[in-house]
Design goal:
By secondary structure, the chain is mainly alpha-helical. Helix content is about 55%, strand content about 0%. The chain contains one helix and no strands.
């Protein structure tokens, strides 16, 4: 995990965590 995340990166990990 990054210490600092952009909204784009956060959206990507959010989708990945939801299995999308």
């Amino acid at each position: 995990m990054h210490e600092l995340m952009t909204d784009e990166e956060r959206a990507q990990v959010f989708q990945a965590a939801n299995g999308n």
